[in-house]
Design goal:
CATH architecture: Roll
Distance between the termini: 50 Å
Strand order of the largest sheet: 1-2-3-5-6-7-4
Number of domains: 1
Largest sheet: 7 strands, antiparallel
């Protein structure tokens, strides 16, 4: 495992800490970084993210993947809201406290009503989760609302 990340080290690498309302705010703090063609999302794993076995909880990894894929789809579609209708996750390796969990994804295909996504969550260059998702594009609100 690489040396644990710190707030200053993440900031120096171009990551920005974000405060989010609702459920997504409970998993963080969440970090974001704009990369060449998309955004990356991250969480610095702490004891609060661990399961009874002392590893990052699978639900935490799944939540991070879901949030990242949804946010990447939102941005790719001109900031149109999307909701997950299917999320498939494959756990490949375990995450540990002190690791910086990084989530990235890409749009595989977009139609007028659905977006198909692929992504992964990694730490220290090792993929922890491979994920694919189908998201429903929500209708635009009527003009004037």
């Amino acid at each position: 495992m690489d040396a644990p990340q710190t707030h200053d080290a993440l900031t120096a690498q171009g990551w920005k800490q974000r405060s989010l309302a609702g459920f997504a705010g409970l998993i963080g703090p969440l970090w974001t970084r704009q990369e060449e063609i998309s955004w990356a999302y991250g969480v610095l794993a702490t004891a609060d993210h661990l399961n009874p076995a002392g590893l990052v909880h699978g639900g935490m990894l799944t939540t991070l993947a879901d949030h990242a894929l949804s946010a990447i789809a939102w941005e790719a579609l001109g900031r149109r809201a999307c909701v997950t209708v299917q999320l498939d996750t494959h756990f490949l390796s375990a995450g540990r406290a002190g690791q910086f969990l990084e989530a990235r994804g890409r749009v595989v295909r977009a139609t007028s009503s659905l977006v198909f996504m692929q992504g992964q969550v990694s730490a220290d260059g090792v993929d922890l989760v491979s994920a694919s998702a189908i998201l429903k594009v929500l209708a635009l609100p009527p003009a004037g609302l």
